[in-house]
Fold these 4 entries.
Entry 1:
Amino acid sequence: MTACFTVTFAMLLTGTIASAVANNRSQLSETALYTASFTTSRTELSGTVEGIYTNGDGDRALVLMQFSDSSVGSFSADAANYQAFLTGSNERLDTQALGTNITGSIIVFGSTGYIGVVLDSDAPFAQQIMSLTLRANSELVYSEDAGRNLSQDLRDDGSFAEFDQWRVFVNPGASGTVEAPSLDSNRVDPVAIYYELVVAEQEEEIRTQMDEQLLQMRAVLNRIGEYDGEMSRINVDGVFIEPPEVPVQLAGDAVTGDEAEGEDESTLELETEWVHPRGFDFDWRSGSVEEGYLDAIMPADESSYVTFLNEKARAEDGSTLFSGNEMEWILTDGNDLQEYGHSNQSMKPLRDIMNNTTQAYQEYLGLKSSYQVDSYSELLELEVTLRGVDSAGSVNGDEEVLLTY
């Protein structure tokens, strides 16, 4: 019986160990990112690791990081002021040899707060945890306790007290990486990378928001149409409302096209003669932030998009051009509906039409303002940011920018 228990226990133990090893291997093959956030050792700037991206061949990877909003302007925007150190590691943080030969470069995407390390391997990346240390050789923030508040695992490395550094653990050979076509090019292009990995998602969110605004505007216009019909249908003792003059801000407006359904994309479009003084009305759907809108919408006599956008932002607020109280509501008997007090219940059906129509006008103009001013401006702001990356982004591809050991 003792021998039986011993053999059974040994078999269970062996099975448990084999299962644990298999699980560890599976986890290693799937997990690309082991460090979700970081804090620099001396200036104590915080940030997040946004993701690990690879090219189609699996021999180039990008570790994309972002300093937190509060840190923007507190770090160098020049890639020449950074260098990196890379070595193999395991779950116990023991240093190991790298599985492939790796070179690299560092990208700083202007003043956006994003920084990336590109790793180029001479073969597809091996399944291996890598310890990546970033060093900022230019400190723009003074900290009285610089290098003193290190985590336990960094205290034995004197370089973290001497230099402003942070460390992340990644596995670019894992299946959990995200493939990025912008990394397939032989040349590291900050604009293409930033658009694909950062701007494209934000742009899609704005486009979804604009489609939703168009649907909301169409619903309110339908409601206004219902109220217009009631003016010719509802009367009090044979007295109707004379249809009032429609405010110029919405006269003739219509939302045409169809919303997205299945694989069919949305074709919704606002047809209008009036554009908010601070807003825009270009065809956003057929263009993109990557292609750019500004060059096409700027006046021929304007050479600076900065001046153009500044003048737009300072234009008169179009919402002040309409007031429901200033509308005239004349009845077919020649009297003014607004002269009837609320105590006169006989005119309530007509007064309800007046109030509902006025409220619908105001609701629609609020939606139209949000659409033409806010959402359009958000698209253009993304383009301005992308132009900033184009002009201020930098790549450090020096031979010693990434040291491996």
Note: Confidence is low (pLDDT under 50) at residues 12-24.
Entry 2:
Amino acid sequence: MTSSSFITLSTPVHAVSWYARVGNWQIDRSSETVNFTIEEYCHGNITGINTTPRGMMVDGIHSRYVNIDLNSVGVKQRRSALKGDIKTEEYTNASAEAEEPITRNILKLSGSPYYQFNFTELWPVHLQSERALVYSGTMINDLELSKNNQDWVAMSFRRSPQLYSIRSCRMDLERLNISLLADDDDVLQVEFLPVKSLNYSIQAFSSGRTGLSYAQRASDMSSIISQGEELFYGDYSLVAALNMSASNKNAAIVA
């Protein structure tokens, strides 16, 4: 099997974080100022190898793990494949800026029992990921999660002797506003207001178990606006596209 990868990374990498807690509500955010590109190409035949002079064999395996997370924009990938032919091409480009200071303010109108906490974060992130995969052999498991600030899409191929897939994912985060309404006892209302988008598309054929699921969360950080799950067993062709976005600009709570 042959493989090659190319990684470019801007320097310096500047990591920052912020934390807030009001009553029973809390948040912990982190990001970096960074740019990087990953290009990877792999093709060949996964086979067993002789490990002793007497010919003891060890089964061949292909394994890959990826975890990228920049200010809650990221992808997770895990792949394992047994004996067979495999060819993959991968491209990932990510950039993030975390230079602007976090703005915090507290507002309490005269005579009102309520406090309004406002947080403004200008830490943008861009992440683009493209992938093509062809496998034929004993079995492959290929799992992936794409997420952007509480919205996510998950794709899984399990125990597939045959797998072909072309996937594209683009995610952007422009800014985030958070506004809380509280009294002396606790938080009464939360508004999580990012400007973000998640655009995911895939074309695939699988001969095992295929799963596609997604969710888009509301601004209260707990309710679900939309969600779904699809499971397929056997030989299936799949074409899917999911697009989620939010364009909140200002805090929506008025005490």
Note: Confidence is low (pLDDT under 50) at residues 1-11.
Entry 3:
Amino acid sequence: MKDAINEITEALDQQMELNFFMARKLIELSPPDERKHLKKELHSRLSTLRERTTKATLALESLVGDHHPPRPSVRQRIKKWFSHS
């Protein structure tokens, strides 16, 4: 069960990275006058999605008694992405 949770968590993390990559590309391709608003909108949506993903992961981990916090490396990548966009 723990292995399955680790695989799910890894897949969710990869999906979040892909989402942030695609959001960054979308911002780059958008007209300059729309970028600030688009970035704010995408940041809000992706932050909500990440929060829900984290809660789901923690709920899965609690089912098997494995109470590790989410890996900080993903959070650091997300913060880095927003600081550079």
Note: The chain has a mean pLDDT of 82.
Entry 4:
Amino acid sequence: MKRKLILIFTILTFISCGNENDDIYKTKSGEFASKSGNFIAAFPIKPGYTAIDNQIGLDKFQIHMFRTSLGTNKVFSIEYNDYPEYMIKSMTDEQIYSQGVTNFANKMADSFRLEFQEPIEQNGLNGVHFVFGLKKHLVDKGVKGYIAGKLFRNGNRVYTVSYIGENDKHTDSFMESFRLIK
């Protein structure tokens, strides 16, 4: 199981190296922004960018990922999806957030368990904040880490802001800094 967790962190680190993208720039405040993603966040170092093709039924869209890591056990990430308009309009914000947290829980079910989720408001955006803790069998083996995440919806775009890893001094500032470019 520890190997599986290390593999997850390694894959996330590899993905975080992503493609170079001039869409990502450093702001005067020292944070990083994405023109196409329309957001600003306090990544600890410049994130890499990766786009993955996705499909639901006949609808194709991309998952846009901005990631950086501080070693193999500290991954800072912002992802967004632009869902087809008819699909996103058929769901309430609460349904979107609930489904997003459930999808996250299903992906990480072998290693993590949902500890809590709560509605939040951050920089003018309503969303949900959630935290996953390691399962007991991994804690008993000395593995450290957790997942902190936030989901926000803006029109047909859904943002996921997350941190996966051990405690890090940059986590709170990263998580709390996410906002849209006005």
Note: The two ends are 44 Å apart (CA to CA).
